[in-house]
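Our consortium's second objective concerns turning raw sequence data into structural hypotheses that experimental partners can test. To show how far this objective has progressed, the report includes one record in full. It was chosen at random from the queue rather than selected for favorable results. The single chain below, 208 residues long, was entered without modification.
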Amino acid sequence: LPSLDDPRKYFKASEKTLKDLPLEQIADSRTPIFDPILIKRFITYKLLFVNTNNQLSGVVHFSDFNKPVVHSYLYNVISAYERSLRSFLRKKGLTDQQMLQVLNIKEKETRIKTFGKAKPLSFQWCGLNDLIQFTNKEGGIKVRDDMNRLRNAVMHSHELVYKDDPDSDLYIYTVESFIEFTEFVQDLLRDFKRVSNRIALYHPQETE
């Protein structure tokens, strides 16, 4: 319940009494959803109250990370990350042939169908997993090597936070799955930033 005296203050009912709501359980609506501090609050309280312009504007449960808006956000991040890996490997001067040799891809597997036409397997057409493996072996930088798990979950619209009992009608979700999921995302954002920073080294900003 909002305080009548101070719109920034809220109370929760407990045994017919009102107690101050912990400030840590109130999240500013401008805070990025994967902010590490915000994630820790979700783990502690499970449910956060959203504050917009000093007014209560909503509540968010950690299971809300299953909503389509989160999938859409991660889809865009993963797509940009995959493109950044391709760009980085090109900037490093690595070639398609080196990729085939390093990843031990056989000649018969080097042609794939894209839009109905067979094309030679290259940086342009290979998937995220191959790009990651090649980066870790030849790129001089180590990134998380099982990111394809998150990519597949997002691309195929799987639940990102799991129910305690998938067969139950009760919507009870596990904090453990939330922690695993958010750790994946934190690693994705970290690796994306690291690769982007490496690419920026090949494009130094002009100085006046």
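The partners drew two points from this record. The two ends are 55 Å apart (CA to CA). The chain has a mean pLDDT of 83. Both points have been shared with the crystallography group to help prioritize constructs.
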